[in-house]
## 1
Amino acid sequence: MADVRPFQALTFDPAVAGPLAQLVAPPYDVIDAEARAGYLGRSPHNIVNLTLLEDERDSGPMLASWRDEGVLRRDAEPALWWLEQSFVGPDGVARTREGFLASIKVEPYENKVVLPHERTHSGPKESRLRLLTAARTQIEPIFLLYDDPERCEQALREQAAVREPDLDAEELGVRSRLWRVDDAAALERVRSALADKQLLIADGHHRYETAVAFHQQDGTPASAYTFAALVNTRGEGLAIFPTHRVFATTPELGALAGGEPRDDVEAALAELEAMSYETAAALVYDKGGVRLVVTDEAILDVELVGRLGHEGISYTPDWKEAVAAVDSGAAEVSVLMRPSRIDQVFAVAREGRVMPQKSTYFYPKLLSGLVLYPL
């Protein structure tokens, strides 16, 4: 079902562009105006010059000039890229998430090959479509998950393990290392193993839908493929972290109005996370303390909490920050969550449903500027 291929990458030439650490940045959608200015100040070749332009139509001439000047160089032959991201998660645990960069065929959602789990908005897609139309280059990879108990990606890992990485950069406490792999046997093992798999979008829904729209507009064989980082759900370093809800004013709590009081928030969180996911549960924290709410509804926690609406809401992965907001008076109530499980997200996507906003928090983000994918 999934068509996964090697590709001829564009990468920065440090001899011309400068040190890689000055050229990379997080994805466009997590960079605010202040951070954008900071990345632009690092280098005239920082990737933010392409991902967050004042006018997306300028990306085409800029990319062309970078290639002409040797700032970017293209591989002579196609390859996959083995990726390792080493980080300390929001829970304080050190992990290494492994995966690989590849070209994938774009498929409409109705084909059930690439599965979404979130709704998208038109504004970002319009911006990304202007960028892709002008640049004819996928600048940032989307993040996809697949489930393979046989661990086909280990063929790539074995190739990478015998030498130093081709690319190595650290940004915001996350070290990303990449190895170019063109071994024919390793590439074939991955291609054949994933041919009957479904791919779940973990992050990058807007960019994926933009790629689909661009192919419908462009109609060329090249536009039928896009750029992705693929991670096996069986990987030890893959984790979903919770996103806690913070409400400036108390919403209509409904099923969350009751619950059993607990004396300690941290202990209550541990109790919550140890419970069965068969029914929905959450912690509610307000000036009266913390309560454990357990329902008899066979729904997701995020679906239960989603009933509270979005008025006056903010989000944080740090439960201490959510509690502190109530203690300081900045908020009236916080709802502390368990992380969604990967099998839950896959199940929802396979049923053709979508999850409420901020249902999943995959950390870390993929770093932009390491590898680009020209069409």
## 2
Amino acid sequence: MHIDIISIVPSLLDSPLNHSILKRAQDKGILSVEIHDLRPYGKGKHKQVDDYQYGGGAGLVMMPEPLAELIEKLISIAPYDEIIFLTPDGVPYNQSKANYLSLKNRLLLICGHYKGIDERIREKYVTLEISIGDYVLSGGELAAAVLVDSIGRLIPGVLNDGTSALTDSHQDQLLAPPVYTRPSNFEGMEVPSILLSGNEAKINAWREEQAIQRTKTRRPDLFEEN
């Protein structure tokens, strides 16, 4: 999979994309991520990429021309399965959407900044608008990092154990059950004996029951959807 990201602050993405699982995925050639700095496409001597909004109001808006020029350049290289704008008024992001996007070959993520991007860019180019939560960030870079991480780990070969992602919270509309590791006795707190039994069928049944109970208690909204 290849993911392009447009940003006016590309350095914000350096650390999230160049460590741990995402770095290994890129080193293996399973995932490639390229960040494109919008600033060189800005207008005039100062490479302006934002301006005041028509009609007045606080906050600057990212201008359409620089974005359009860069998007057209990227589109000319190869078509995208989705062109995604990260925005607080997008559709809520969830595991189902991560699964959907992980099956694509080529994605473009547009990181907004200031008050957002000119609406005409959204109308002309954007095919999917995503929000990672009901709150506002200073820009779309952190949201883009969330998308890349959640999508990348689902690509076959990225995780050492290919079944690991399939047992994560939200994959089946349930939260994950409790997990334990050594020692079996920590300050008098014992690991549930069923997990030490070696009986795979009983362990799986226990985990399913725990997942259901945890979801009912912590996220009843998910259980109702189930």
